[in-house]
Amino acid sequence: MIALLLALGSSLAYGCADFLGGLGARKAHVLRTVMIAAPASLAVELLLWPVLGASFSTGALAWGAASGVASAAAFALLYRTLAIGPMNVLSPVTALVSAALPVGVGLLQGDRLAVTGLVGLPLALVAVVLVSAGHGAGATRPSRTALLLALGAGAAIALQLVFLHQAPPDSGVAPLIMGRAVSSAITLAAAGAIRRRLGSERPAYALSALAGVLDSVANLLFLLAARSGDLTVVAVIVALYPAGTVLLARTVLAERVHRSQLVGLGTAAVAVGLLALT
Fold first, then answer.
1. Sequence-separated (6 or more) residues with CB below 8 Å from residue 145
2. How far is C-alpha 29 from the geometric centre of its chain's CA atoms?
3. Which of 124, 187, 241, 265 could form a disulfide with 14 if both were Cys (CB 3.0 to 4.6 A apart)?
4. Around Cβ 118, how many Cβ atoms within 10 Å?
5. Alpha-carbon torsion (111, 115, 118, 120), positive or negative
6. How many Å apart are CA 236 and CA 176, to the nearest integer?
């Protein structure tokens, strides 16, 4: 139950971070937003170091660095995917892959589910697709390139979670610090390489920084959840992060919540209840 609650918290934090980061990116090039979010995120993890501890063993550094590379790749592939579109087709593909791959890894590593879990897990995967999808009527058929990018983005997100899960349980926040440092370095290098194309618009500093803080909170909650529960269950719950984005968009921006998304939210609630009984 503790792992489930932590995973739900992580999912909500990821959803809120995506929403705020998306708002921040509307005012300037997305890399300018990340250049603020990344240091803010790293600062949070460094502040957590004295509280939660950190053991910079070889395993923690290696898996943390791997998660950082995956995180940077996920960011680039995801935004390129959504730029090509159509979002209402590609977003569910990305979310489903990001959930399914860790489930497979968890099962291969020996995770076992009770009957309620065997029912709740597929329901949760269905909910991931429904919540992240918009209206399907008249949807444009995605190109092969767009589908490959969506699959790549989902795989990169999944690998980030799997790599964090592989870090030694006694390493504290060391994998998070290492991962954030690596992903920040890659992002800054990319920004430097295309600095002439970043434009002169200033990003929304407060929104960008808050997005970075929430992303760190989400990573921490995922790490704690994965250490206290099964990766199979935790990864699926975390993949429900679009629900937080959808609800915030409805509340703050008055965006319409489509019928499929409402069904997805209800399905998610049932799935979480079943997984809680596992």
1. 84
2. 20
3. 241
4. 12
5. negative
6. 20
Q: Cα dihedral sign for 209, 211, 214, 220?
A: negative
Instruction: Name residue 247's amino acid.
Output: L
Q: How many CB atoms lie within 10 A of CB 276?
A: 16
Report helix, strand or coil for 109: coil
**Single-letter amino acid code for the residue at 61:** L
Element (H, E) at 152: helix 144-166
What is d(CA 109, CA 105) in angstroms, rounded to the nearest whole number?
6
User: Quick one: CA dihedral 183, 30, 92, 94, positive or negative?
Assistant: negative
Confidence of residue 137 (pLDDT cuts 50, 70, 90): very low
Q: At what angle do helices 2-25 and 242-252 cross, to 10 degrees?
A: 50
Torsion of CA 254, 260, 262, 266, to 10 degrees: -160
* Residue 212 contacts residue 40 (beta carbons within 8 Å): yes
pLDDT band at 72; cut points 50, 70, 90: confident
> Shortest CA distance to 128 belongs to which of 83, 154, 101, 96?
96
Beta bridge partners of 172: 54
Number of CB atoms found within 10 A of residue 210's CB:
20
Q: Helix, strand, or coil here: 173?
A: coil
Question: Is the alpha carbon torsion for 5, 12, 222, 91 positive or negative?
Answer: positive
| Residue 86, Cβ density class (10 Å: 0-12 exposed, 13-18 middle, ≥19 buried) | middle
If you ran DSSP here, which 8-state letter would residue 229 be given? S
pTM across the whole model: 0.82
In whole angstroms, what separates CA 164 from the centre of its chain? 12
Residue type, 257: V
Distance CA 25, CA 42 (A): 19
The mean pLDDT of 168-178, rounded to a whole number, is 93
